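Can't paste images in this forum, so I'm doing it all in text. The chain is below; anyone willing to post the predicted structure tokens underneath?
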Amino acid sequence: MALMAAHGEITPMPDCAIFADTGAEPRAVYDHLNWLEKQLPYRVHRVHRVQAGNLRDEILGAMVGINRMDARPPFFTASGGMLNRQCTHDFKIAPIQKKVGELIGHVPKSRWPLDVRVIQWIGISMDEAHRMKPSRMSCVQNRWPLIELAMNRTNCLSWFDARGLKRPPKSACTFCPYHNDAMWRDMKANDPESFADACRIDEAIRPGIAKQRNKEQWYLHRQRIPLADVDMRTKQEAGQADMFGNECEGMCGV
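Text version of the structure:
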């Protein structure tokens, strides 16, 4: 959307962009963000990078009893369920909301101003239209430019191809349990550094949080076996649910 705005294909030009960094994205995402910042015209004030901490460090610390894990990812449990997801709110939505508040001069813990209207673009495409949700902030109105242009994910990639630009990588934590087998296979084959990072987290979470009663084994993969042992060649994508469907209200790509 930022590049399309820079090309005059979406108007008006935004004042800024906000990227919520969990500290656990693949290296390619950070490389793409560095490149993107250089492509945007001067009238885009800046790309704000915001953080609520480092999700990887929080997880690893919780496993050995150093800290809490309030922003829990939806790990698969040995009993057949998943943990309640909190990571998207704490590491994506909340930092973005906080930055929006700072930009409009909002005082923390006070009421949102009634005389300010923020238009927030969210990059949800046609094939994810069910993720469209209104803003939780009274002064913010969400807008979905890709929906307005009837663009799906393939159209977005074709936009890059037509201009000779490298396709952008998907923004998501390396160890996100919502990855489907196609994503795990691609990561293992084309980004071994990120796959090794995911396997490290997968092994670390196996015992559950230190000192927790009734501990249960946790896993990154829905088969509930170590990620390194999953036979990626035998998985069939057909019929698998899109677990990103209600995952993060589009915020992971903001």
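The chain has a mean pLDDT of 88. Residues 87-103 form the longest helix (17 residues).
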